[in-house]
Design brief:
With 134 residues, the protein is α+β, with helices and mostly antiparallel strands. The chain has a single domain, classed as 2,3-Dihydroxybiphenyl 1,2-Dioxygenase, domain 1, CATH 3.10.180.10. Strands 1, 2, 3, 4, 5, 6, 7, 8 and 9 form a 9-stranded mixed β-sheet that branches. A hairpin with a 4-residue loop joins strand 4 and strand 5. The longest helix is centred in the first third of the chain and has 11 residues. The radius of gyration is 15 Å and the shape is globular.
Length: 134
Amino acid sequence: MIGKLNHVAIVVPDLQAASDKYRDTLGANVSEPQDLPDHGVTTVFVVLPNTKIELLHPLGENSPVGKFLEKNADGGIHHLCYEVDDIIAARDKLLADGARILGSGEPKIGAHGKPVLFLHPKDFFGTLVEIEQC
């Protein structure tokens, strides 16, 4: 069902400093920041030859990554994102297999303009998993 790894998301306390570090120190191609109010984040993508790194920073007071930063002041890995061909079919199979979908269970549009869902970390060995329709 899952396809390739789309990205690894890292919550950072300072988005500009993190972007600069990836661009200037590692020589990476770093996108411009993008606000995603529906997800409560500002995101930047570091483009690699085989995947992406998503740098996340809280947007607004009720941001889920704001809570992450409260517990992890230096930031850290937040989630892994895998591609799926059909997000509704993937969701239905996951639910049938006992996995929990976070939120309403209906896909939201993610940073790439494609539908996404998040899976409960307790169902995936402590790792928050995002699936994105490719």
